Amino acid sequence: MGKARVKGFSGVFLKLINLTIVVCVMSLITDIALTKDDRPITLLNAAVTRSQGSTNKQSANSESNIKQPVKWEIVRMRVTAYCPCPKCCGEYSDGVTACGYRIQPGDTFVAADGQYGFGTEMLIPGYSNSRPVKVLDRGGAIRGNRLDVFFGSHDQALEWGVKYLDVKVRCE
Ligand SMILES: [Zn+2]
To answer: What whole-number distance in Å separates Cα of residue 14 and Cα of residue 165?
Structure first.
């Protein structure tokens, strides 16, 4: 019986050990599970930090964009039109503008006063689908707030006539 009691005791003891082992294993598993849970959180935090970093970079970029905005000055201009024909250009009807640009079919550009450098962008309402065009030419009568918009044919230039428009002039 003594042996049996010992057996019984050892049985309980073994059960206790088993329980301890089970608890240990379970706590290990829980630890692993927690560690596994922690990792994604850490990664998530890192990802959030990274995305915040990129957001900061983006905002920094937009800040630098804000520092150099495209500024348009609105100038009331008397806008006439011309074409490359001798009637419009006289001795300068060689297909090359005052800045040395060789005129191509379908070109849209403008002749302006010397105060507007070659390449200055201007948005003239109703001309070139109201997209900005560049100053590529000069004209004897084109002084001050006068412009001459370019057309491929004399008829188109005549059709334009004379307009007084609020022209947007791009200033850097
Ligand atoms: Zn003409």
So the answer is: 100
Dist. CA 112 → ligand 1 center (Å): 17
- Report the distance separating Cα 14 and Cα 24, nearest Å: 15
Are 76 and 168 spatial neighbours (Cβ–Cβ below 8 Å)? no
Cβ 160 vs Cβ 80: under 8 Å: yes
What pTM was estimated for this model as a whole?
A: 0.61
pLDDT tens per residue across span 88-117: 999 999 999 999 999 999 999 999 999 999
39-49: pLDDT as tens digits: 444 444 444 44
> 80 C-alpha to center of ligand 1: Å?
12
Q: CB-hemisphere CA count at 13 Å for 79?
A: 23
